[in-house]
Structures are given as C-alpha cells and as structure tokens.
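ARCHIVE CARD
Drawer: 12
Card no.: 0347
Subject: one protein chain, sequence and derived structure
Cross-reference: see card 0346
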Amino acid sequence: MLYRIRKLNAVKQLLFTLLIAFSVIFVWRGLKGLMDIYLFPGNPVLSYSLSLLFGLLVLYVTHYWTKELA
C-alpha cells in the first residue's frame, strides 16, 4: 500500500514538473512573439541586441542586489 502511495506521488510530481516546464516555455514563446512584433520589428539585429543587453543588465543588477542583501 505504501509503495502505491509513493509511486502515485512520484507520478504526480512528474506531471506537475512537466506542467511547469511547458508553462515556462509558453510564457517565453509568447514574450518572444510580442517582442518580435513591437520591439523594432523592421530591424531584428537591433531588437535582439537591445533584448540581450537589457537581459544582461537585469541579471547584473539583481546579482548585485543579492550580494548586498546577503
């Protein structure tokens, strides 16, 4: 009986993990689509470059804040 409960919990954990993974992929796909439409749609190199720089800036700033809070 206990084995069935553990196995059921493992199956539920796997399904929940897959649900979260697909949700994250769908969010990023949606954001990428919106950015392709609205962020310099006629100039993909500029759009990608600014997106990359903004992402790196956010990562740098939040890493700095994390160090300051610790």
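Annotation on reverse: Residues 39 and 47 are 6 Å apart (CA to CA). Residues 2-38 form the longest helix (37 residues).
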